[in-house]
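User: I'm putting together a small comparison set for a docking exercise, and I want a reference complex before I start. The sequence is below, and the ligand is D-xylitol-5-phosphate. Could you produce the 3D structure with the ligand included, as structure tokens?
Assistant: Of course. I'll restate your input first, then give the structure tokens for the complex.
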Amino acid sequence: MTQALQIAPSILSADFSALGRDIAAVERGGADLIHIDVMDGHFVPNITIGPPVVKAIKRVATRPLDCHLMIEEPDRYIEAFVDAGASMVSVHVEAVPHLHRTIGFIKKLGARAGAVLNPSTPEGTLADIAHDLDYVLVMSVNPGFGGQAFIPNSVEKVRRVRAMLTAAGSSAAIEIDGGIDEANAAAVVAAGASILVAGHAIFGARDPEAATRGLRAAAVGSASSARA
Ligand code: DX5
Ligand code: ZN
């Protein structure tokens, strides 16, 4: 698979009082997407961002908005997020009873559709729908918070997801989210991921612009030249 590498900084670890400034910094650093974590306090034990904030971000961001919905009953809100400016919408397999319908709905609204697997959810749940997916998001932490440690067997999980997609004849991209940093980026890309989400590693760094550049360089295996 030769999908282009995409770096997707997660604004969960940005300064919420200065989102425009922080988004501009990662865009200067070469961010391809802006990853927005939507949490409802039910599906995950944290509450974050809703459509009005996505709409405000849309006014300042120049890169596509990637909305990761960690909410119950996402069908009720998908249209509001697309209207607010989401170009990509992903829903958790664990939160959706009729995934085929939900994925079709996202695509009908004109957004790219993704299905998200929690660390404990096997990739086989997606085999029958692989063809319909634009991307699979592999969680490499339990969702809910930024700054958690990467679960090591996620590398193997990405490999299995890639094999499952290939067997199904699907060219869906694989996004990985949780604890991604310069130390593990190359391994997840080698396993088959092409969209790397990172929150703490980028916005927790002193210079998010340089950290975005550094993550890309690490992912393609040229970390040392990134710091030049
Ligand atoms: C976790 C979120 C992630 C999170 C990643 O529930 O889905 O997008 O922001 O943050 P880091 O990179 O800090 O693990
Ligand atoms: Zn996320």
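The CA atoms of residues 20 and 113 lie 26 Å apart. The chain has a mean pLDDT of 96.
User: Thanks, that's exactly what I needed.
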